[in-house]
């Protein structure tokens, strides 16, 4: 949380350390989802620009990586929307590899917002484990090392989180 405080105060050296530490992880996270290195480069760059511009409103209660990956996810969605619109107007809709997934993402935006609210309501440890697993793509072993718990405990947290989300989604669909 010291890093966040320093960045909020405008410390560029700490920002550079954070950039060096998370640049490759964010790039990999975006490539994995979009299958496009070009988009991953754009999203990664815009993520850090947005992170710096919004530094004054960063939360000192949330881990820096959670905030960075949240920004990256939002920037990715924004860029995919712009690309889909561009292809639509150029008549190349069939040639873009991510159009179908983009449309699905847009159609399910309300559902994602509901899920985000549900995730925020989870107990702190369950929420952090779930976000590291599902949003950042960390393995159970990596998460276990971060929190000094067993991989089995990570699995249990994720299982409970998924059950909680499924139950709420099921109740909404009825």
From TrEMBL:
Record flagged with keyword Transcription: yes
Residue ranges of domain RNA polymerase sigma factor 70 region 4 type in the record: 119-165
Gene3D superfamilies to which the protein is assigned, alphabetical: 1.10.1740.10, Winged helix-like DNA-binding domain superfamily/Winged helix DNA-binding domain
Keyword set, alphabetical order: Sigma factor, Transcription, Transcription regulation
Pfam families referenced in this protein's UniProt entry, alphabetically: Sigma70_r2, Sigma70_r4_2
InterPro entries per the UniProt record, alphabetical: RNA_pol_sigma-70-like (IPR039425), RNA_pol_sigma-70_dom (IPR014284), RNA_pol_sigma70_r2 (IPR007627), RNA_pol_sigma70_r4_t2 (IPR013249), RNA_pol_sigma_r2 (IPR013325), RNA_pol_sigma_r3/r4-like (IPR013324), WH-like_DNA-bd_sf (IPR036388)
Residues of the RNA polymerase sigma-70 region domain: 19-84
Keyword Transport listed: no
Family membership: Belongs to the sigma-70 factor family. ECF subfamily.
Protein name (Swiss-Prot/TrEMBL): RNA polymerase sigma factor
Originating species: Sphingobacterium suaedae
């Amino acid at each position: 949380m010291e890093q966040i405080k320093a960045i909020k105060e405008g410390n560029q050296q700490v920002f550079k350390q954070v950039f060096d530490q998370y640049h490759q992880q964010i790039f990999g996270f975006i490539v994995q989802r979009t299958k496009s290195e070009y988009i991953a480069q754009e999203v990664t760059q815009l993520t850090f620009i947005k992170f710096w511009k919004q530094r004054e409103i960063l939360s000192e209660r949330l881990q820096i990586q959670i905030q960075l990956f949240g920004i990256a996810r939002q920037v990715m969605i924004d860029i995919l929307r712009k690309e889909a619109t561009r292809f639509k107007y150029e008549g190349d809709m069939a040639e873009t590899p991510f159009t179908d997934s983009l449309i699905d993402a847009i159609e399910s935006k309300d559902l994602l917002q509901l899920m985000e609210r549900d995730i925020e309501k989870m107990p702190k440890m369950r929420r952090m484990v779930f976000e590291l697993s599902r949003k950042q793509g960390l393995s159970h072993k990596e998460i276990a090392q971060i929190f000094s718990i067993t991989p089995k405990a990570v699995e249990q947290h994720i299982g409970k989180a998924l059950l909680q989300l499924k139950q709420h989604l099921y109740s909404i669909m009825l």
